[in-house]
């Protein structure tokens, strides 16, 4: 079977181009070094890590073939993915399938990778945010998925997207190289198991639905968070607001500490952050960061130690 480098080289030659490879990082002691290679082709950029330069270069080529497959290029098997959804890549970012690009396919590779590790007694998957670049309205996150000495890096416009891509690269690498040992691993059954576990956790952790306070006065709306949350939750939210530097993350973590659901919407040209507080709240801005900043201003004011007035008699 042809190697990923050979397949990618042949594809690019047909298009009149040549893929570019670059060793961008080396970490660890000399006898146990890890090398990271970057591959660029057709305006896309991906990276991969391995214990040798040769293997890292092969894995970068493999990741590029997977990337090209997800955006609609004809990639020969086994390097093409099934169930891909063709889409145009965002050439301005220089990263694979950023902007409005699809995930690798419709299934969750984070769940599949976790199920694979549990079934074959592999170490747990570790995810780490390795880069966060770009302006507030065009953030680019890079996440590393690691199992033992094997790791894969991937980028996305959200942390969740980058995590999903890194999990996909690592999962496909393990399945291909351990195919004889994992031939009895059925992906659809693994996804069903993961879904059932997620539903069990959802049932256990989902709080009772919020009911509106029909006796609350409009003039006292600013007491809503104090009136409808426990002191422990407010203390946890204040701690988050004082420790977190990332604006969007701070708003979402503070809402989570208060057990409030958050929802992002885009009403061109505005970005809107909704909180299911009492009453329901919405904060807008020309970017997600502006909307999150407005929400943080409200939360900081509302979480001050101010006692609400006694409830009015009906």
Automatic annotation (TrEMBL):
Residues 3-70, 108-176 form the DRBM domain. GO terms for cellular component: cytoplasm; nucleus; RISC complex; RISC-loading complex. InterPro entries: dsRBD_dom (IPR014720), RLC_Component (IPR051247). Keywords: RNA-binding. GO terms for biological process: regulation of regulatory ncRNA processing; siRNA processing. Residues 82-95 have a biased composition (Polar residues). Residues 81-100 are annotated as: Disordered. The keyword RNA-binding applies. GO terms for molecular function: double-stranded RNA binding; siRNA binding. This is RISC-loading complex subunit tarbp2 isoform X2. It comes from Bombyx mandarina.
